[in-house]
Amino acid sequence: MDRKILDKIKKCLRLAQSSNAHEAAAAMRQAQKLMQLHGVSTDDVVISEVESFTVKSGAGQIPPAHLCMLANMVDKAFGAESVYSCGRHASRWVGRFEFFGANGTAEVAGYAYEVLARQLTRDRNAYLETLNKRIKRSTKVRRGDLYAQGWVNAVAKHVVPHQRTEAEERSIELYKAKRWPTPLEERQGRDNTKGIRSHDYDALHQGRQDGQRVNFHQGVGGSRQAAIGEVSS
Question: 36: how many CB neighbours lie within 10 A of its CB?
């Protein structure tokens, strides 16, 4: 769909809201003429309000649960939604989170996820360095992921859910219906924390403590800088 044509149609539709009856009528006729000429439906115009932003992830075919938790938290904070997909690159699987939303929320959400994911990875790695070098790899992975889940849960407590408008809800629902005719399945992620033992709870506790020191600002105005004011621990 030609973006320039869509922009012209949307401009006409905005002018059609004018308090000047003659101007509003003329703008609506022009919008309808353009839509008919280029085969653009009202739903197409609504869907065009939704944009997407893709963030690479090193998680492979199935992301660990804590990264899904992080993406879900960011979705909630900015009123966006996200999907995870992966593809083969050379000899390995490369995954990505794609955020989508109306009014610029996709890029802001994607940027927030990138920043927080980097911080989480650094903190998780730093925690793993404190563990006994002789513990089994499965134990190390389990504790690392428990730490990460505690970290995300602590940061999530600062989130105030974004309430989408009716117009945003409609545009996102139409976008999903057109792009994914089959409803998306709920994203769970790979749970590496099964078989948790009493000694593992220290990892969860430490993750929560470190996560409490992360300053997550949702911001206003849809700018990257507003989305993340400071992320430090």
Answer: 9
pTM of the model: 0.84
**Burial group, residue 87, by CB count within 10 angstroms (0-12, 13-18, 19+):** exposed
Distances (CA, A) of 50 to 44, 97, 126, 172: 10, 16, 38, 6
Q: What is the dihedral of CA 69, 200, 203, 109, to 10 degrees?
A: -10
Name the residue with tokens 């966006």.
Answer: 80
Helix (H) or strand (E) holding 93: strand 92-102
Which structure tokens are listed for 197? 């033992």
Distance in Å from the first CA to the final CA of the chain: 45
Q: What residues contact 199, with CB distance under 8 A and at least 6 apart? A: none
Each as own residue / partner, the long-range contacts of residues 167-170 (CB below 8 Å, 24 or more positions apart, any chain) are 167/46, 167/49, 167/102, 168/49, 168/79, 168/101, 168/102, 168/103, 170/46
For residue range 97-153, what is the model confidence (pLDDT) as tens digits? 999 999 889 999 999 999 999 999 999 999 999 999 999 999 999 999 999 999 999
Residue 86: its H or E element: strand 81-89
Cβ(95)–Cβ(63) under 8 Å? yes
Neighbours of 76 (CB within 10 A): 17
Q: Is the dihedral of CA 179, 189, 94, 73 positive or negative?
A: positive
Please tell me the predicted confidence (pLDDT) of residue 87.
82
Convert the pLDDT of each residue in 201-221 to its tens digit.
999 999 999 999 998 876 544
